[in-house]
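Note to self: keep these together.
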Amino acid sequence: MSEQRVVVITGASSGVGHATARLLSRRGYKVFGTSRDPGRAEPIPAVEMLALDVRNDDSAAACVNAVLSRTGSIDVLINNAGYELAGASEELSMDEVRAQFETNFFGVVRMVKAVLPSMRRQRRGRIINGSSLAGLTSIPFLGVYSASKFALEGYTEALRHELKPFNIHVSLTEASFLKTPMMNHREIAAAPISEYDLWRQRALGAIRAYEEKAPGPELVAETLASIVASDKPRLRYGIGQQAKTTTRLRRFLPGGVYEQGVRRTFRLD
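Structure:
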């Protein structure tokens, strides 16, 4: 059995997951990263990369069982795997919508269900789910991505209550715009509608501009490390000034004023 705390990080081949795996490994944790294609991930010293497709029940179970067979326990699950689907809601096919939720929401649920039996038996654990600024305020032309994060917020809040008796702490990270490889792999609706072109281009251009000026994935990695180390982790961790400011503005501004601010932010007027 391992004396180190064991951490599993989904989506660890690049970006936030990769930076977090590197940081936690340096701080003495036994880290398992995951990727659909581990062979393509940049190696990290002392981090073992495992194959995982969060969209598949058998893959999730096999990944968790592989870690348990090596270590005997999983102390921390960081659900980081995800992607962004862009386009006007009308432009997106039902298959595209389902695929977005299958990774960003059901993938989290699937991994949580896979680790909970062992965490309940050991009467301890940490689960950290990666939400987003888009889980706090819906972003135009990232509506289905935002919906997947809103769903994750509600699920995680309930999960925190349900698992408290087992000494399993549940938290959310809500990061603002980041400069990571994810910005270059955003999926676009396969069947665009020309009437939306002007506003879609404005919104996605504004998003890109914010990302280019944004901090890198290390900012989120540092927050995740602090959550893992905390004796009493909170439910929500806003990361970046925009996420913190958005929370306050949405709470205190009249609805119409806030809506106007969103439209200005994404250059829709």
